[in-house]
Write a structure and sequence with these properties.
29% helix; 19 strands; 2 domains; Aminopeptidase; alpha+beta; Alpha-Beta Plaits; elongated; six-stranded mixed β-sheet
Length: 368
């Protein structure tokens, strides 16, 4: 089977989170020379395949087979891949069955390596991710078998295939502030405490403010207000409570504690409650790390361009690998139709991605 045949096969599985729809069993059978570890919980399947070629470092390719629901607006069946003029349209084409097909085929064809090669796949990346990659990593740590390096094949490129890899990700801090006042009649404002008026006074000081200056790899961590609501949708009653929600995509320079101090600085003396939750932590893999160097050289060799090192975008399961100390990068096809109707990528990109992964393994072997 060629990589495009494998890609089309994977796209045909209706693997909406958390259902793998049998795709993981197929991959296990396809890589029949690899040892198998399953960790399944709460309807989520997690598959780890590995092969020890030698005593050297452990390189893992990671990703997910689950996809978001198709939604409306498709011009073809989202789970019957449409191939036309070198373009393949189906749900998961970019995010991220292209990446899965590329590294599965690359590992299928490896004949020698100086260490261990593995694959970590989950059916719960697009969902809450509570029983996905984290569960497998916890198990791998318990048996002292965590990878040294990982490549997550999420779509990372911007305009041209090969133009960007992710060497880190910003974290995400979610917050909710409840500012309490005293409800009253709008005609007698002196007899009430209007929380809208109180918060309005400090909004210019907090809305859209950068909490740090960023650096060469991270944009500044910005305090982004996402929702403000109060009152009963009437004009003659002032509200007794205001609720404000916000998000901070934080760099390594701003912590959850820093955000808490920032809020308290401006709400100090007010009657309020703050709830903070960090859904993901920021991480950065040094550009001199072996996996970055080997991937860079592979991209330059196959694509003829030098990729930018980026930390932009949302979150991925790379964050879980990084939390366990695994040196992690991300690389995949162009990201411009993920989660959209008529999600698509090109045959050329998928074939080149597969070639890049094969060359990365060769580079890695030479360096190790």
């Amino acid at each position: 089977m060629e990589v495009i045949d494998l890609f089309i096969k994977l796209l045909s599985y209706e693997s909406v989170t958390p259902d793998d729809a049998g795709s993981l069993d197929f991959i296990q059978d396809y890589l029949n020379g690899y040892e198998v570890i399953w960790k399944n919980e709460a309807g989520v399947k997690n598959l780890f395949l590995y092969k020890r070629f030698g005593e050297g470092s452990h390189l893992c390719f990671a990703g997910h087979v689950d996809v978001v629901p198709p939604g409306e607006g498709w011009e073809s069946n989202p789970f019957v891949p449409l191939v036309h003029d070198g373009v393949i349209t189906a749900r998961g084409a970019q995010d991220m069955k292209s990446g899965v097909a590329a590294f599965v085929q690359a590992l299928k064809e490896v004949e020698s390596f100086d260490g261990t090669l593995s694959i970590l796949l989950t059916s719960d990346e697009e969902g809450d991710a509570e029983y996905g990659t984290k569960i497998m990593l916890k198990h791998l740590k318990s048996i002292n078998f965590l990878p040294d390096f990982a490549i997550v094949a999420e779509p990372t490129c911007d305009k041209v295939f090969g133009d960007a890899i992710k060497i880190g990700r910003r974290g995400s801090i979610n917050g909710m502030i409840e500012k309490y006042g005293r409800q009253g009649h709008a005609a007698y404002p002196e007899k009430s405490t209007n929380p809208i008026h109180k918060v309005a006074q400090i909004l210019p000081e907090i809305a859209g403010v950068n909490l740090d200056e960023g650096d060469d790899y991270f944009s500044p961590s910005q305090f982004v207000i996402t929702d403000i609501r109060a009152g009963m949708e009437v004009t003659n009653v002032t509200p007794g409570k205001l609720k404000m929600m916000f998000n901070v995509r934080n760099s390594t320079k701003t912590s959850k504690e820093d955000v808490e101090k920032f809020v308290h600085r401006y709400f100090n003396g007010m009657n309020y409650e703050l709830n903070l939750n960090q859904s993901s932590k920021p991480f950065l893999t040094d550009v001199d790390t072996l996996v970055v160097e080997c991937l860079d050289r592979a991209i330059e060799s196959i694509c003829g361009i030098t990729p930018q090192h980026s930390t932009a975008g949302g979150t991925s399961d790379a964050r879980f690998l990084a939390e366990y100390g695994v040196k992690t990068v991300e690389f995949g096809v162009i990201n411009d139709t993920i989660h959209a109707p008529n999600e698509q990528t090109t045959i050329d990109e998928v074939e080149k991605l597969y070639q890049v992964f094969k060359q990365t393994i060769i580079n890695f072997k030479d360096e190790v």
